[in-house]
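Appendix B, example 12.
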Amino acid sequence: MADKVLIYSRFPKTMLARFAERFELLDTGGKPARELFSSDELGGIRAMLTAGGTPLDAEAMDLFPKLGAIVCYGTGYDGIDLKAAAARNIAVGHSPGANAASVADIAMTLMLATTRRILAADHYVRSGDWASSKQSPMMRPQAGMPGRRIGVYGIGEIGRKIAARCAAFESEVGYFSRSQHNVPYQYFATLEALADWCSVLMIAVRAGPETQHAVNAGILKRLGADGYVVNISRGSVIDERALVAALIDKSIAGAGLDVYETEPHAPDALTALPNVVLAPHIGGHTLESHVAMQNCVLANLSAFFQAKPLPHAVKTA
């Protein structure tokens, strides 16, 4: 008889197909599990699959008295109360680095699209303004990549790949993280110092209480009127209201965003601005990344049901 796995978050059926070949899935479709399954069914659940950003606190864990493993589809696990899980001897796994390359790629895409005003250029062509030689202030020459100072906030797997890509574009690269790393980029001891130095701030830090609204009005002001911010981590890292204000009063030049504070809702104030490029959290959404993430999920679930340590366990230290 196949081992049962509760699908706690909402996932497209195509993303669950490989798991269904190995396990019996109880799919909530993102709805409360108690609305769809009996207490007896939930009482026997030993493992669940969730999206890392989906809130999962102690109260939710207590609905599953036999729960022994929470496996996140993807790198993030900011929605999981790790202390509550540890107190209940629940192992937490994820897919570290599985989507790092594709997320770094979307970071570069957003940066280039924002700094080179690709959306405005696209509209300039489609509208016929180019053909009619109509002047547009949005088409003024912009600074290119060679010599541009790129600040990377967070130098984990994704941050390093972003930095390497920026270096290949002949840009100067600096970074800030909790500690200095053995990487060939300039280290800044504070986020404030990094923001003072760079013209593009790339946010690649892990979400958590310590990074909540770390990029606030003060940091944005330090970027300056020619500065840009690109966020591919979590929406919680930026104070969204401060970002909107900075964009409207032109305290910064623009922003490229793949994540938002309340997904899937981007504030109307952001969607109305011409100097912002928006994407629907697609950083890790490539065929290769999904295969890699699914491999990690399968490895974690298989190990758990064989009473082995999770090969891709969340490291809290």
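The chain is about 35% helix and 15% strand. The CA atoms of residues 232 and 258 lie 5 Å apart.
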